[in-house]
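For reproducibility, we list the full input for the S-adenosyl-L-homocysteine complex.
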Amino acid sequence: MDQKKNKKIYIETYGCQMNFSDSEIVASVLTDQGYTTTGEIHHADIIFVNTCSIRDNAEQRVKKRLQYFHAFKKKNPGLIIGLLGCMADRLKTVLLEEEQLLDIVAGPDAYRDLPRLLEQVESGQRGVNTLLSMEETYADIMPVRLGSNGVSAFISIMRGCENYCSYCVVPSTRGKERSRDAGSIIRESRDLYEQGYREVTLLGQNVNSYQWIEGDNVLSFAGLLGRVAEVSPMLRIRFATSHPKDISDKLLDTIAAFPNICRAIHLPLQSGSTRILDRMNRNYSRENYMERVEAIRRILTGCTITTDIITGFCDETEEDHRETLSLMEWVNFDYAFMFKYSERPMTLAADTMEDNVPEEVKERRLREVIDLQQKLSYQSNQRDCNQVCEVLIEGDSKRSADYFMGRNSRNKVVVFQKTNAASGEYINVRITSFTSATLLGEVVHELKIR
Ligand code: SAH
Ligand code: SF4
Ligand code: F3S
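The corresponding predicted structure, in tokenized form, follows.
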């Protein structure tokens, strides 16, 4: 075999689930060419860092990591270092030319080109491709599941984003929104099921705007979700992320119609103030958001609702901040990801608004938001106590091989003492207590319910 094709690739991934899913596409493109992957950095001939630009601290972390890899390369001449993902286009000049840290830079739509870029490096040049595409969805590529538990897998159903939330870098790093061929998504779900997987998460920046047109047929996200759910009642379906502006009743009705579509919706709020939501270009108001939450509660009893919050966006006043806190309480979120605003280049906010909330105010507001959410999450776990839920077993608990971990339909992690059940099976568990991130329970009876 071609010497260079025997090389081992180590991929380190930052950012969102989409990026993790992309790393699996990268692994697939390259293993098809005879490269192999390794989880051990010291065995690697090629290191890829799949990067995230969402907040400044995400980029700083990657830059530090690249310095470390660079030092590593000095001791291992011949090692190839490549930067992939959302930082690629923005930072290629400085990282490639000024700091000379990299051999390869490839953007999110250029992964099919990696074999060629690697060959360029072998011949003594640098390999760069950060072109964004209008069509690329990697529909025909069967991802190589990296670090998989063999039970749950990600499936990308669309790429890019055109919502242009004013704070957000994603439309500039990932380009135009495009939906992936529905047939290929359903095939991938079926293949995974046949391989023993029991849960798929359909991924996109705003899955509600998924649309696939075939002849006279228009398949919406609700339609796609139903088709994937029909693969098997034993296959759980999750999805992320839903934009509050277009989570329709039709979608909620579809979830209600299939017990295997999970009762967990991630619905990023960002702010509870309509004035700030307008400035963020989110296209919904506080009242619209409340109305959608009421619809979820009406149609999907017991559904978990989780969210994302940003504190200290441009011009946010104490009054706006209090509106965020009061709406968080009103919704009673089960869980939240909370951030302080970080100005990003090439966004509407960076171009037209002043990042005028002082750092210490952003931080104090973030603290208040986190404290409130801790209280709400505690209450959410308390409500689960004494309830019996169906858990899909994912494997051993991190703490002890005597315990299994899995998740219930509502996306909560459940840990319980092992029985003779196995990974990938469903089992009934009664919740007896909890820690901040985990529900603890006991198997109700050995009978598997599905
Ligand atoms: N597509 C998803 C979000 C993707 S980014 C959606 O629309 O909800 C994940 C989260 O990062 C966002 O929901 C937001 O809360 C946060 N985020 C994005 N840009 C940010 C910024 N500039 N500063 C702080 N947080 C940000
Ligand atoms: Fe960013 Fe908004 Fe697109 Fe989400 S919907 S990725 S926050 S622009
Ligand atoms: Fe980060 Fe890109 Fe995802 S900026 S959050 S890796 S889409």
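The first helix runs from residue 17 to 31. The two ends are 47 Å apart (CA to CA). Both points were considered when choosing residues for closer inspection.
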